[in-house]
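Below is how a single chain appears once it has passed through the pipeline. First comes the sequence as given, then the structure the pipeline wrote out for it. We keep one example in the README because the format questions we get most often are answered faster by looking than by reading.
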Amino acid sequence: MLFKKNFLVFVVAAVLSTVSAIPVQSRSVADVARAVGGATTKIDARAPRRGDSGSRSRGRRNEIEARIPRHGDSGRSRSRGRRDEIEARTPRHGDSGRSHSRGRRDEIEARTPRHGDSGGSRSRGRRAEVEARAPRHGDSGRSRSRGRRDEIEARSPRHGDSGRSRSRGRRGEIEARTPRHGDSGGSRSRGRRAEVEARAPRHGDSGGSRSRGRRAELEARAPRHGDSGGSRSRGRRAEVEARAPRHGDSGRSRSRGRRDEIEARAPRHGDSGRSRSRGRRGEIEARAPRHGDSGRSRSRGRRDEIEARSPRHGDSGRSRSRGRRGEIEARTPRHGDSGGSRSRGRRAEVEARAPRHGDSGRSRSRGRRAEIEARTPRHGDSGRSRSRGRRAEIEARTPRHGDSGGSRSRGRRAEIEARAPRHGDSGRSRSRGRRAMIEARAPRHGDSGRSRSRGRRAEIEVRTPRHGDSGGSRSRGRRAEIEARAPRHGDSGRSRSRGRRGEIEARAPRRGDSGRSRSRGRRGEIEARAPRRGDSGRSGSRGRRDAIKARAPRRGDSGRSRSRGRRSDFEARSPRHGSHSHSRRAVGASI
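Resulting structure:
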């Protein structure tokens, strides 16, 4: 009985509420409308009209399926929907204002600005933001697409693009981005997953093109002749597989992905700007700047940053590799590359890095694992080349004749297996790995600067300075820092290898070494150190356990050679004829 009563009350209440919700026509309202001045009309507020300068539509679902601004739209057009905001957006000729589309899902499937687009067009969706974005000739403004998932599948600016084009998606941002001749502005693509698969700016690109995705950002990025602007690709996974700027690239080209950022990056002749690739996993597999590189070339991956990096003749800028995973497998700057190319990986940063003749700038590769396997600067390298990986940073680093700059490789595990600067090396060459930093480092004729390798365990097994070494050569590794390091005649710069494990197995400076040569490892620092004829620096060894068993400096040793290890510092130290240096015994030394 109680249930029936309650149910009846509920039904009555529902009927009353429904009846009250029905709109009823009122004469007073109609009279007021006539008094104001005319009949009421229904207006669609979303309909875009000619001459609208600030039209904003902020819907949540299926906001704009197709929005096509015509010729003469000069204001800002922003569409900030959440789902399926813009399926197709195609600005025509003469669009000068900023067009922002900031949807979250499926924002822009196709966006293709035509000739004469001068304003900034931004698309900031999260899922499948921009599948195809191709600005044509004369695009001078900023075009930004900042989606999170599948932002830009294809972006190809044509001839005359002068403004900045940025695509910042998170997943699949840019599959193909190919700026043509005359691109002068900055084009940035900052996606997180598969941002840029192919990005190849052509002749005359002067602006900055940046692609900063996290996963598979740039598979191929190859700026051609005359690229002067900055092209940055900063993805996290597979950011740049191939990036090859050609002749005349003067601007910044940066690719900073986290996973597989740059597989191949090869700037050609005349590249003068900065080319940076900063991925975390597999950032740069191949990066080869050619002759004339004067800017900074940095690759900063975390894992497998640089497998091969070989700058050629005339490289004068900084080349840094700082990726996290597989950043640079091969980086080879060619003739005329003047810009900076950076790849910053942490694991296996640089497997092979070999700057050629005329390299004057800094080349740094700062990965953590297997940073540089082979780094071989050639004749004329004057700048700094740094590779700072943590695991297996540099397996082989061999600067050739005329290297004057500083080449640093700072990995933690197996940083430098072989590093051998040749004749005329005057700059700094540093390799600072933690594990197995330098297995072989042999600077040749004319080495005058400081060569340091600072490992903690088994730092230097063999260190033999040769003819003409005038600078300080220090080896401060933690584990097996330097297996072999042999500077030749005429090396004048600093060569430092600061690894923790297995830094330098052998380091042998030749005749004429006048600077400081220090090896400060903790375990098994220096097994044998034999400076040759003409060594002018001091040789002091301050170890804690088994410091000096035998030390054999040759004729003419005048400088300092210090090895400060903690465990089995020197197994052999014995002074020879003509050594007027300071020979100090630390612990358990026998001369």
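Residues 431-591 form one domain.

See the next section for the split statistics.
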